Amino acid sequence: MRYVFDRKRQSSETKTGLLQIEVRITKTSIKTLISTGIHLYKNQFSDKNGFICRNHPNAQIITGKAKRIFNKIEAFVNSKDCASFEDVNNWDKTLPKSIL
Question: What are the residue boundaries of the structural domains of the chain, listed by start?
Answer without folding.
Answer: 2-93
